Amino acid sequence: MAYAGSDRAGVPVSIKILIAGGFGVGKTTLVGSVTEIRPLLTEEPLTAPGARVDMLRGVERKTTTTVALDFGRITIRDNLVVYLFGTPGQERFWFMWDELSRGALGAVVLADTRRLADCFPSVDYFEKHHVPFVVAVNCFDGARRYDPRAVRSALDLDPDVPVVLCDARQTTSGKEVLIALVEHAIATIRRNSEPSAEVLAP
Amino acid sequence: MAPPEDLWLDQDAGPVVRPYALIGGRTRPAGEALDVIAMIIAVRGVTPDPVGLQPEHLAALRLSALPISVADLAADLDLPLGVVQILLGDLRERSLITVHNPIPPARLPDPQILKEVVDGLRRL
User: Nearest 5 degrees, angle CA A187-CA A138-CA A73?
Assistant: First the structure.
């Protein structure tokens, strides 16, 4: 499959970053701190309990319902755009993770130390799918400030996975999280391409 | 705690709509999958034959006069992503648009692009 070529001239390069984590951990806040959020509708296959809701609504034979994702866009320069997708935290929304994570540069797993276990599924998912990720500990008002090392140990992270503390409400903090992720992704790509570095060098 | 069926439609579930009437109940687009950040560009100088096209097809076509991502199109059209992917599959079949799927980050022709992203984020 050819990716680079003259047919791409003038076509913007688009980069995808996922914002994951448990319900209510601050994903919407984080996306909103760095860019304007637009709701992006997506579909969910109706499950058995959903079918009951469906019947209550009087809509026959509907097999999907819609779910809104947080969607943000950061224009870096002409023809270079970063897209942020806040992925719903609940496991029932995982069907859309496969589509969103394909070709993603990486993911931010937002964690709340009061409910650290809520981000286990996201960590497991990105580890399993080899998506580079950072863990960003959202320091809520009144939340005890944890040592990042304690979080790393509690999540049993690989040593190279960055753990950063953040305040998802602050633009400065939100962008530092994204920068940490992109730098980690660059390092990961470089490491993975080392055996054939001469081939890839310009 | 409420039984699971009562928790099913919480604030995350969004509005319940029936967009699939628009696309004849299809759930997969024609042809290759369209990534959510694939760039769509309308082919210039072609007047589409409106037979078989919905107003939403034409709206998508108008919005893609300049390169636009699938996700941006879905947000602009206020339609679910999957529906827009199917509409775009139809337009692609009729050669009314070109679809540029994103380059996987590890295969970007110029590794400097990711450095530019870091610098761009710093400037936010």
Answer: 60
